[in-house]
Design goal:
The protein has 465 residues and is of the alpha/beta class. The chain contains 14 helices and 16 strands. The strands form three sheets. Strands 7-6-5-4-8-1-9-10-2-11 form a ten-stranded mixed beta sheet. It has a four-stranded antiparallel beta sheet with strand order 13-14-15-16, sandwiched between helices. The protein starts with a helix and ends with a helix.
């Protein structure tokens, strides 16, 4: 009777079309890396005006990190740190590349490491880690790529971006292709198609749309949905981003893969001053060393292994994504990779308590910062340094350099010790952006309104000076 009952239930399941979760020895791994998103611009992280139901639902199935940071406050270096699991300053990638540079060829990317242990690997969207042959995704461990090599582009096809040979144009692997409609939607569909074709063996997907980076562009339908919204275009762009994430998750669920897929979601840096994003309660924005520049909305989910609805307050880095992926995938030569991140799995499974990191460090040309437990210093060439206690002063308004000189000396010493293992940046972003970034730091350090945020404002400032 028992055997017959089991058979009957099996037949019901088969006839209903419900797929059981496919059991694999290794999980699928997906990194959802969005672009220039504000810390407070997702429902799971406190947004009240931007609608992100699919992303919020996904976050609710895993662990949200409240003190998570990327390794740089601008796109290219942040991505270089994430994809190598190492401080990008170790190989000279401190600043955004201009098209001829890329990640040092001696670095082993996350994709290359996972490919060596049997993963099929794919990247979608923005690359920004080298546009020349040798530095492109399919040269750096990815079996498949559909996206663009530069740092930004239009969300619609146009004659300025979509010319063969242009780093802003869409390529499939190495071949120039065209697309119709809205790019965020197409990137979601391409990821869905990849999952459909590669659902029998473990895969790694690096999904990196340009949303919600400028230019501020959305479809007429999405704009109409948010008519009258004070941040109409950003709301529409975020809605499209959420729709694409929802389509990817739905495909995983449909294929019975969701239970055994480790998913990370984060932004490459804080919200930009140019896209109406909001980073509150953090101070600062993309491009500077304040929390709003490098603390990001971040969560991880793996239904079969991680408890849902948890919040983790430990000091965490995007560098940890590589180490965590290598851990769960069984990469055996992790020590040889000399990763700066640590596996988060022992913390997520409550096997280890405390902080994943006691300290994190940042440097971009003439600006640097260090976080040691709750203390943080920011150092900018030709400006007095600042020290903050983030436990008491998350908004970074009270400079403690003179009130606690011993603490300042200790954190400063750790920053300088870290710098001993670095190389000088192989390129910089030039005098214009150096000047803008210096002025922004000067204003933020003095708790005053930022005067200049882009080259156009700088030219106007100089003409009025």
């Amino acid at each position: 009777m028992l055997a017959g009952g089991v058979l009957f239930l099996s037949l019901i399941t088969a006839c209903s079309g419900v797929k059981n979760d496919k059991e694999k020895s290794k999980p699928n791994i997906i990194v959802l890396l969005v672009d220039d998103a504000g810390y407070a611009d997702f429902g799971f992280n406190g947004s009240k005006d931007l609608q992100t139901p699919n992303i919020d639902k996904l976050a609710s199935t895993g662990v949200v990190f409240t003190d998570a940071h990327v390794s740089a406050s601008v796109c290219g270096p942040s991505r270089a740190g994430l994809i190598t699991g190492r401080y990008q300053q170790r190989f000279g990638f401190e600043c955004n590349p201009n098209g001829t540079e890329g990640i040092n060829l001696n670095e082993t990317t996350m994709a290359a490491a996972l490919k060596q242990v049997g993963y099929t690997t794919a990247a979608f969207g923005k690359w920004h880690l080298g546009a020349q042959p040798g530095f492109r995704p399919t040269d750096r461990g990815f079996d498949y790529f559909w996206g663009f090599l530069a740092g930004g582009r239009s969300y619609f096809s146009n004659k300025n971006n979509d010319v063969e040979g242009n780093a802003h144009a869409i390529i499939e692997n190495t071949k120039h292709v065209t697309f119709d409609g809205y790019l965020t939607d197409r990137l979601g569909e391409k990821a869905v198609a990849f999952i459909d074709k590669n659902n029998e063996n473990p895969f790694f997907i690096y999904w990196a749309p340009n949303a919600v980076h400028t230019p501020m562009e959305a479809t007429d339908e999405d704009l109409a949905r948010f008519e009258g919204h004070p941040r109409q275009t950003l709301a529409a762009m975020t809605w499209a981003l959420d729709r694409a994430v929802g389509n990817i998750v739905d495909k995983l669920d449909e294929e019975g893969l969701l239970n055994n897929t480790l998913i990370f979601f984060l932004s490459d840096n804080g919200g930009s001053a140019e896209n109406t994003s909001i980073n509150l309660p953090l101070k600062g924005f993309k491009g500077n060393k304040y929390e709003g520049g490098q603390r990001v909305a971040f969560f991880a989910t793996w239904a079969s292994q991680i408890q849902k609805g948890e919040v983790f307050h430990g000091l965490t880095s995007s560098l940890d994504i590589y180490a965590t992926a290598a851990d769960v995938a069984g990469v055996t030569r992790v020590d040889d990779l000399a990763l700066d991140g640590v596996s988060l799995m022992p913390f997520l499974k409550n096997e280890k308590m405390g902080q994943p990191h006691e300290a994190l460090f940042w440097r971009k040309d003439k600006m640097a910062a260090a976080r040691v437990r709750n203390l943080k210093i920011i150092r900018v060439e030709n400006l007095p340094p600042v020290l903050y206690n983030l436990e008491d002063d998350l908004g970074e308004t009270t400079n403690l350099v003179h009130k606690d000189p011993q603490a300042f000396k200790s954190v400063k010493g750790q920053l300088e010790k870290w710098e001993e293992g670095l190389m000088k940046p192989l390129w910089t972003e030039g005098q214009t952006w150096d000047t803008i970034t210096w002025m922004i730091h000067q204003d933020l350090m003095n708790n005053r309104e930022v005067r200049v945020k882009n080259p156009g404002q700088l030219n106007k400032f100089r003409s009025n000076d």
